[in-house]
Design a protein that fits this description.
Length: 195
C-alpha cells in the first residue's frame, strides 16, 4: 500500500480554479529544469510574490512537487489548473482561489497533504531540490513520468516505492501532466496508478 493513502487513480486538479480563461495554441520545446524561486507571473495575477514559475512545463512540475513536499498547499494550488473542456473554458490557480481562506484551498489541503510523505525522500530536506528532465511531448501539453522527476537526486518513482509496502516497481505508474494555458504552464493532471 502507498503511504499516506495516496492511491488515488487520478487526482482532480480542479480544486484550484479561477475565472474562466481559454487556452492558447503556442509551441514551446520541453527541456530540463530545476525549480528556482522566480518572481514571474505571466498571467498577470498577484502570485508573483510567491515566486511561482510557470515559464515552462518542467518549472511548473518541479515547483508543484517541491510545494507538495514542503506542505505548501497555496503554492501547489497556484501551479495547478483545469484545462478547457468543450464549452467550459480553462481555469487556473490564483491568489483569490488559493489563499488562506479560499474554500478550494481548504478542500485541497487534505488531498494534496497525502502526497507529502509519499513524495519526500529519505533523508528529508526542508528545501528540496526538484529537477525535471525533459518532459515528454511538445506543444501545449506534456507528460512527465515520475522517473524523470528527481528530488534531492532521487527519482520520484523510487521515493514513492520506498514509502510503499506490497507494491513493486512494475506495478507503479505515476505521471504528471502539464499544460500551457494562456502562455503559462500549469500542472493539469496527476495519474497515480498502482496495479
Amino acid at each position: 500500500m502507498i503511504a499516506g493513502a495516496a492511491v488515488a487513480a487520478v487526482v482532480g486538479l480542479s480544486g484550484c480554479s479561477e475565472d474562466p480563461k481559454s487556452g492558447e495554441s503556442q509551441k514551446q520545446p520541453a527541456s530540463s529544469s530545476t525549480v528556482e524561486d522566480k518572481s514571474k507571473s505571466p498571467d498577470g495575477d498577484s502570485s508573483s510574490a510567491t515566486g511561482v514559475d510557470r515559464s515552462s512545463a518542467e518549472n511548473a512540475v518541479s515547483g508543484w512537487v517541491a510545494a507538495l513536499i514542503k506542505g505548501d498547499v497555496e503554492e501547489a494550488c497556484l501551479l495547478m489548473a483545469e484545462p478547457a473542456d468543450g464549452s467550459r473554458p480553462a481555469q487556473v490557480g490564483s491568489d483569490k482561489r488559493c489563499g488562506d481562506d479560499a474554500p478550494e484551498r481548504k478542500r485541497m489541503e487534505a488531498t494534496l497533504g497525502q502526497f507529502k510523505k509519499s513524495f519526500t525522500p529519505d533523508p528529508p530536506s526542508a528545501d528540496p531540490k526538484v529537477k525535471v528532465t525533459q518532459a515528454l511531448g511538445t506543444g501545449d501539453k506534456v507528460t512527465v513520468p515520475a522517473a524523470r522527476i528527481n528530488v534531492d537526486g532521487q527519482a520520484l518513482d523510487k521515493i514513492v516505492l520506498s514509502h510503499s509496502t506490497g507494491v513493486t516497481q512494475d506495478q507503479l505508474d505515476i505521471k504528471v501532466e502539464s499544460s500551457r494555458i494562456e502562455g503559462s504552464w500549469y500542472v493539469t493532471n496527476l495519474d497515480f496508478n498502482v496495479g
